[in-house]
């Protein structure tokens, strides 16, 4: 076996192993990703994982069983983080920033395809697989169909401004207010349903946040991107804040906050195949 | 209930097989990444000799730099926001899990047909691979093993002690110690003496077979 074929073999094995750990391929990974959940829901939705033997193993992975089933420290938490990184990595969304350089996303898929001498489309894409499963599930639910249309409406925009400190006193509706009005009318959703759509797609602060990146320094931050994880972890909406300083740090600063989108192309392509 | 038990077994097998396949003891790429990670950085020259498939070819090296977030200069290191860094974090947790005898015993009892000898202790296996890698190094390998055995026997030794005991030149001993440090088989203490690493202390029996 020459060097190059050994490398291809090991790279293929690694990609296969990483993909097999993704939530669309493995129930244990899926379970870990979607925690915390009420025990009654877990017993109903995952009967395979609540037998005595299964519970013993899951506890050793770091899962805590009580009235609520939660991820504790250990492999479960590490896998949770790892699933998100692999989602982003194999969907060209992993944010990469070297000190002094601009924030960028690397085209990992084309590099992998070249190394493996294969077409990019034949490479695994765990995020796409998972999103397909989630959309299929949503498309069978009443609010789910509205969620699919809500996602379409979000993704048709470049970004949506939600706050601008300069306009704070102007009583002018923000882009988000306008968007909300449009959604309410078009999808005929009540305020409670709108909140639920946001929890399903934009993020649920109870599921934790993650800083994707920041620019500038911690003291003089120029911009910051923060993601709230959403119910099924499609995690395609993040908050992007841009800061403008008046002279020095002590002179104060203004801030504008937008909802911005990632995994956009993948989701747009997938959404074409679903009825809303 | 039987269906649930069977389904869990199937899922567990896939899960465990995937974790095993990522281990640096089984995969050339994670082995390279993990060795870079545990050392902070490694000399380009050493990596070129040990991992020629990745480092020697310009095209492959540049692709790896982008895919895994690796810096290739005179030293090779991982970017803290690159996938290689995240992956090696995850590998640390895999090692901890497979080192847990309870986990191995419970999984082995469920997957006894698939793993008749029990599921492997990947941390121990990683040490075996490093010792094997060291032994096969043509110039310093054999004597590095001798030095390691001597350090394990006494507990900690300085270069002067090794010179006296093994009758080897100081320069040669220093090269062997560099190699032992690269594989994280020994640690240099504040007083300049060398002691076995934690994994060597834990799995000393592996040295006896060498």
What do these coordinates show?
The complex is a heterodimer of chains A (276) and B (210). Chain A is an alpha+beta fold and 276 residues long. Helix content of chain A is 46%, strand content 19%. Chain A is built from 11 helices and 10 strands. Chain A has helices at 3-20, 27-34, 39-45, 52-61, 75-89, 108-116, 126-139, 142-155, 175-187, 191-201, 264-272; strands at 37-38, 63-65, 68-71, 95-96, 104-105, 159-164, 209-216, 221-228, 237-245, 253-261. In chain A, the strands form 3 sheets. Chain A has a 5-stranded antiparallel sheet. In chain A, strands 1-3-2 form a 3-stranded antiparallel sheet. In chain A, strand 8 (221-228) and strand 9 form a beta hairpin. In chain A, helix 7 packs across helix 11 and helix 8 crosses helix 10 (191-201). The radius of gyration of chain A is 21 Å and the shape is globular. The mean pLDDT of chain A is 92. Chain B is mainly alpha-helical and 210 residues long. Chain B is globular and about 65 Å long. In chain B, helix 2 crosses helix 6, helix 8 crosses helix 9 and helix 9 (141-154) crosses helix 11 (170-182). The termini of chain B are far apart. Helix content of chain B is 67%, strand content 8%. In chain B, the strands form 2 sheets. Chain B has a 3-stranded antiparallel sheet with strand order 1-3-2. Classes of the chains: A alpha+beta (276), B mainly alpha (210). Chains A and B meet through helix 1, helix 2, helix 4, helix 5 and strand 4 of A and helix 1, helix 2, helix 4, helix 5 and helix 6 of B.
Helix and strand content put the structural class of chain A at: alpha+beta
The interface involving the most residues is between: A-B, 50 and 46 residues
Strand order of the largest sheet of chain B: 1-3-2
- The number of helices of chain A is 11
> Judging from the principal axes of the Cα atoms, what is the shape of chain B?
globular
Oligomer category: heterodimer
Uncertain segments of chain B: none
What number is the mean pLDDT of chain A?
92
> What percent of the residues of chain A sit in helical stretches (DSSP H or I)?
40-55%
Query: If you compute it from the alpha carbons, what radius of gyration of chain A comes out, rounded to the nearest whole angstrom?
Result: 21 Å
Report the β-strand fraction of chain B as a percent range: 5-15%
